[in-house]
Specification:
Largest sheet: 4 strands, antiparallel
Structural class: mainly beta
Order of helices and strands: EEEEEEEEEE
Radius of gyration: 17 Å
Helix content: under 10%
Length: 118
C-alpha cells in the first residue's frame, strides 16, 4: 500500500513523496468481566493475491483488541464480536503518522468493517 503526500516547501510544490506504512485497527472497551467473550477476526488480502485469516486475542488488562494491517495489504475485512453489547471505540489509523482513517463508537454485539486501499 502506498499513500501520497504533497510537500509544502515552496521549491518543491506539487512534488509527491511516496509514504508506505502499516495501519492499526483497534477496538477499545470499558472494563469487562473475564467471562465476557470478545473476538476480532480479520481477512487480509495482500498485493500478491494471497489471503490470510487472523484471529486476535482481547487483552483484558488493557481492554483492547487490535490488528496490524501490513503495508503490502490491498484490502481487509474484519468482524468484531463482544458478548454483551456495551460501548466500544473503533479506531483505524496509520502506524507511523497516527492519522485516523476511520473512527466510530459502536453499541452493538457484532460489527463488520471492510476497507480497500487505493
Amino acid at each position: 500500500m502506498s499513500l501520497v503526500a504533497c510537500s509544502s516547501d515552496d521549491e518543491n510544490q506539487g512534488e509527491e513523496q511516496q509514504i508506505s506504512q502499516s495501519h492499526i485497527v483497534e477496538f477499545t472497551t470499558g472494563t469487562l468481566e473475564s467471562w465476557v467473550s470478545v473476538g476480532l477476526t480479520t481477512i487480509l488480502t495482500l498485493e500478491d493475491g494471497t489471503e490470510s485469516t487472523i484471529n486476535s486475542d482481547f487483552d483484558y488488562t488493557q481492554n483492547i483488541v487490535s490488528i496490524e494491517i501490513p503495508e503490502n495489504a490491498v484490502s481487509f475485512e474484519l468482524e468484531f464480536y463482544i458478548e454483551d453489547s456495551s460501548q466500544v471505540e473503533m479506531r483505524f489509523y496509520g502506524f507511523l503518522d497516527g492519522i485516523n482513517v476511520h473512527q466510530e463508537t459502536i453499541n452493538q454485539q457484532s460489527y463488520q468493517y471492510q476497507y480497500t486501499f487505493n
